[in-house]
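Handout, page 2. Input:
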Amino acid sequence: MIRIAGMAGNRGRNLLNITDRAPGGAELSVVLTTSEDAPVREGAAEREIPTEVVPLEDGMSRTDHEEAVLEALADYEFDLVCLDGYMRILTDTFLDAVPTTLNVHPSLLPSFPGTDAWGDALEAGVSTTGCTVHVVTDATDDEGNVVESEVDAGPIVTQEPIPVYEGDDEDSLSDRVLYEGEFRAYPRAVKWFAEDAVAVDEDGGTVSVGEDVATTPGDDHDGLPGRRLVSNDRLETLRYGENPHQDAAVYTDYTCEEASVVHAEQLNEGAKALSYNNYNDADGALNLIKEFDEPAAAVIKHTNPAGCATADSLAEAYEKALSTDPMSAFGGIVALNRECDAETAAQVIDSFKEVVVAPGYSEDALEILFEKDNLRVLDVGELGERTERFTEKPLVGGRLVQERDRQSISVDDLEVVTEREPTDEELESMIFGWQTLKHVKSNGILFTEGTETVGVGMGQVSRVDAVRLAAMKADEHAEGKDTEGAVMASDAFFPFPDGIEEAASAGIEAVVQPGGSVNDEDVIAAADEHDIAMAFTGKRSFRHD
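Output:
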């Protein structure tokens, strides 16, 4: 826990925000102000924080006032001083007598120091301003006169950028800097001090922060940054979000070099623009076909594969992918990892599809695809390498960030755990199934034969139900396929043998799964009883979003 002496000149909204959020367990010991009428006193009283008032009396020098402030604070214990709109230049009389003193300034120092940072930013016409939390240092000379160049010049602890929008005035900009900038940066700085992560070198004018680096102690990963600053530009406003009552827009990161649907060219300009759901599904489809070096095709519906396959030709891959579940593929998204040719295009338009995504199209293919007025045709260009490291999911009040699941396994990575060894064909199918399964929502089960999907069981809260769903999909929806002799892939271990029993009933003859359950021995025994070959990957491939 860290105890704070807060000093405010008016409303003290940053101090009250820190109190309410208690970053790092911080709490205010006292709030001091220069006026009996300062609104911060009421907010402090509501939170049962004691307050002190040290007025600026006529004829009182700067040193005299600081000594009075120190006397008022003498009965309180505190480890940090936080200023908030405390419109007094402090000297070493005060600063040398207390722990580190912090202030938050409403600009990205050293730009726009002084009392009118918002107006200065607007007058300068900058597109970005922000706030700075810095260590307070003496800005007076030996005679006690203020040295303007030294005001707001202490070493910087942290900053937060804030955009300046067309039409902003001082009120709108100051509100945005406060609520979106200062309310983030000040608690962050306090938390670092509470965690003893900050080293202040006032003589050298530097601050180092141990927590503001990418670390995952004890792991062999590259780590995640202490902060993520993401700046995207709105590409376009969408008709609506997932549902018509939701507003939506798509934002773009122009620094992204990886092939993406956001940066794709829509070739048939007369067709309607992509919707929120189109973008989401097309992104999922494109990420799936990036898994394969061989000609690959996938059909996606609601971010789940309705079918996926690789083959010697693109047209054959698409035919196999579509035949997994042609009913569910209606209104879906098609993704291809080769230039779309006329033969593939003719199959795509044979039933209703929303979008087709590919790294190029032949002239004949475009002529065929353009026959469908509202089939959006996206050219993502050369697929190249997968360069984007992170994926993220917004939460109310924050976001989850993780490394992309770029695991790729080979036959050598598989541990065969059953009496029967998988055949070469089953091993090939296990590898294909595992790479595809990463893109199926958990709990996910995939039935495959060779390098094509047979049945997909996605998004179930029970793994055994996911097996049943995959079997049902294959039996009732697949064309020219069945589960007899197929391979089953599971994105996590089987907690009980019942999933294997269901698979055996469906005719599954080989299984690939992570392993690692306390009941692995029972699951392996069930596989042996049904002469099912089973291999462990040692890795899980959940997909929860």
